[in-house]
Structures are given as structure tokens and as C-alpha cells.
TrEMBL record:
Family designation: Belongs to the calponin family.
Entry annotated with the keyword NAD: no
Gene name per UniProt: 109534590
GO molecular function, one term: calmodulin binding
Organism: Dendroctonus ponderosae (Mountain pine beetle)
Function: Thin filament-associated protein that is implicated in the regulation and modulation of smooth muscle contraction. It is capable of binding to actin, calmodulin and tropomyosin. The interaction of calponin with actin inhibits the actomyosin Mg-ATPase activity.
Domain Calponin-homology (CH): 6-110
Protein name as catalogued: Calponin
Amino acid sequence: MSKRNKEVEAEVLDWISKVLGEPLPKGEFEDILKDGIILCNLINNLAPGSVKKIATKGTNFQLMENIQRFQAAVKAYGLPQEEIFQTADLFEKRNVAQVALSLFSLGRLTQKHPEWNGPTLGPKMAEKNERSFTEDQLRASEGHLGLQMGYNKGASQSGHGGFGNTRHM
């Protein structure tokens, strides 16, 4: 079972509150998000119209469908499948840490969507830094002997004393 990080959970809840523009109810992380209503509203704010039907009350099965609709919407938004938590992780509290990580990833992913100018989460995403070299530049490196080629100006392990021994200084 993964260790939960209360700071990450608090950061995620704060981000969700900012995106929705309203304070979230008080309580435990998993209890606030359990019914999936807040999650559906979150993805609808990030990408309007992502979740068409949100069940506000009903049986456990109907509330679990909210979570499944959210999962489908974030996958369409661009979150990789391996970063999306399972429904039972949240609804049955099996792996709440994974839920927090999924939402943190979603918060970072918003940086890659130019249409979103609201709050983001986490460090700035790296941008592509493609480089092109001329044939002359590529050929210039062929004569270079790197240190991995076996030559290091006479450096050796002589005097080391063998594997497992302490180093004498």
C-alpha cells in the first residue's frame, strides 16, 4: 500500500477549489471526492462539456459511474492511462495516494493546454528542445576519445586492495 502524503492531498484540494472557484467541503481527502461530483465538475471546468451527466445522488453504483465518467474525460484530456487511478482506489479507499497523484498529474497537464489560463499544479512542464547539427559538427566528434573508451591518463585501481576492503587514506 502506498504511503499517503497529506501535503500533496492538501495541495490538490486547494488547486481543485481554485479551479472550481468555490471552497470545498471540510473533511478527509477521500471523503470529499468519493462521490465523483467534484471530480466531474473539475474536468468540466478544465474542458467544458467533458462529462455530460453527473449523478448528484443515488446508489453507490450511480456515484461510482461519476468517477468512471471522470476517468474517461481525463483520458480524453490527455492524461496517460497508467496515471489514472482505479475507481476502487477512491470509492473503496484502496489506494488514496494514487488518487492524489492522478489529480496532481492532471493539474500539471493543464500547462500543456493553451486554452486553459487558470491555476495549474506542480512544477513547470519541460518544453521540447530539439537541436540540429551540421554534418561537419557530427564528424568533428568522431575523433574524440571519451573517458568511457578505457583511457583516463593512467588512472587505475592499483593499490586498492581488492573488492570489499576499506579504502586506506
